[in-house]
Each structure stands twice: as C-alpha cells, then as structure tokens.
Amino acid sequence: HVQLVESGGGSVQAGGSLTLACLNSDYSWARACMGWFRQGPGKAREGVAAINSDGRTNYALFAKGRFTISHDNAQNTVYLQMNNLKPEDTAMYYCAASIGRHETDWYKADRFANWGQGTQVTVS
Length: 124
Prior knowledge:
Layout: E1 4-7, E2 10-12, E3 18-24, E4 32-39, E5 46-51, E6 57-59, E7 67-72, E8 77-82, E9 91-99, E10 114-115, E11 119-123
Parallel strand pairs: 2-11
Antiparallel strand pairs: 1-3, 3-8, 4-5, 4-9, 5-6, 7-8, 9-10, 9-11
C-alpha cells in the first residue's frame, strides 16, 4: 500500500515562496510518476507539475517559471518549490503517484491511483 505524506504548506504573502514535500513511503521510484495537483475553493482539481522516474518534468502553464518539481531518490521524496506566489495559488495541494510514465496525460487526476492527504497553501 502506497503512503504519500505531504508537508510544507502554510500562509505566505504574495511574492513569497514555499516548498512542499511529499514522502513516498512504499512506492518504487523506478516505476513511478509523481505529480502535484491542487484544488482551490469552488474549483476543480488541476495538475500543477509531474516528474517521471527518468527526471523528465511537465508543468501547467501557470506553474512554468515559478514552480519547480524535483525528486530526491535517497529520501524518496518529491518536492515542489513555489516562488513568486500569487493569491490565485491558494489551494489544497496534493501529491499523487502513478505507475509508469505520464507525458501527455500527466495533468489528468484519474491517471494517478495514489494520493496524499493534502497540504494547504494560502497566499494573501
């Protein structure tokens, strides 16, 4: 059973930065695609970024240039570095894991079978 535990959320002012972390306790990184999704108040869940096991990354347009997804193999942890945060980035952020690679469909939540509990990010 895969367990994903997010941390690092919080409240920041616009223009500030946060780094989210997702510890993957059981998954074999060698065959996993890891993604970050978010869901704002009254909004649908949307893909933020994803990283495949070969290190290839994909980003939503709103995240490009501001957010960076990375993976620490030794710690089996995926990070989402978020810079220049905006009020519209306010949302619950979720980590997700999926077997195999996802390039063209990385932003689709139903491609990911395993989810963390989420961590709240509030930008004011």
